Structures are given as C-alpha cells and as structure tokens.
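Kindly inspect this chain:
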Amino acid sequence: MHALIIVDLQYDFLPNGALAVPFGDEIIEKVNRIQNDYDLVVATQDWHPAGHKSFASAHPGHQPFEIVDLDGLEQVLWPDHCVQGNRGAELTDLLDTRRIEAIFRKGTDPHIDSYSGFFDNGKRKNTGLAGYLRDRDITAVSVCGLAADYCVYFTALDALAQGFDTYIAEEAVRPIDASAYRDKRTTFLQRGGKLR
C-alpha cells in the first residue's frame, strides 16, 4: 500500500503569503491530479502558536533568515507564518481535500520548530503520522508539497528512517532555494530515497 503525504499547501507558502515559496502555486493542480494514484492520502499543516520561537519577531534585534541557536538546535528565523487560526495557516481552497483522510499538524510547540510531518526538529515529540500509516498497512510513501528544501525534504528523510519505501514526487514540489534543494535531493537519494 502506497500513501501520498501532501506537505503544507497553505496560503502563507503560496504567492503573496508571509513565507511564499517561488512558484508554489504551480504544483496545486499536479497534487490534485496525482492523489488518485495512491491508496491513502494524508496532509500536514504548519500550525504555529503566535510568538513561536522560530519567528524572527520573537528575537529582538534579529531579522528573518538569520540563524540562531534555539535550545541547542540550529534555527533559521522565519517571518511570522502559519499562525493558528489565521488565514495564512489554512490549506489553500484550491487543494482538493476529498481524498485526504487525516491532517497532521506540526510546529505546535512554541519552543521548537517542526519541519518534518513525523517529528519536531529535535525528535522530542512525534505527530503520530508513522503509526497512522502503519495501522493502514502502508509500506511506501510519496511526499509532495512545500517547501521542497525544508518540510518536504525532512518529511521524506524521516519516512526513510521509519522504514517506509520513500519517494519525492518531483513534479509536485517547489523549493525556497533551488540550489539547496539539489544538494538535499542528492543526500535523500544517497540514503535510499527515490524520485517519482
């Protein structure tokens, strides 16, 4: 059984969003189209409380995209984005949600960021996604969505580490930084991941 994991197709990651991924809107139609190719479809949703420590605004004197130490972990400081209850945190209305069986929210702890749909960045808490997939006899996953060089990449790495046969659905991802994604894609492939 093969599942599709749709990562963070939210307004704040789309054009004019608080943390827009270049050309992020181009993948929505593709994501909608490929859903029928899978036995199970789930999604992730960035769901930050206001004042999240990954936000530059929570660190006076710092600017977005600076890197700081956050409780022992390297942290990119982001513009405020995907704040719980705000429109920017909503999944885009253009996403066909009829086949999405469950949505896994991440980044809910104000003290640690969470790129992966499986764990926070320190692997201190898990979202329950791996258990959910196993309970449905899923052995393979394909990951799509935004952004390819952050949340898609780390979700895919954690899927590999959890023992799933893991693919990145290349036509249905877009990165923040294309060159960074090329390097991360190489790492993903070296660890046994595949492209689809």
Summary: The longest strand covers residues 165-174.
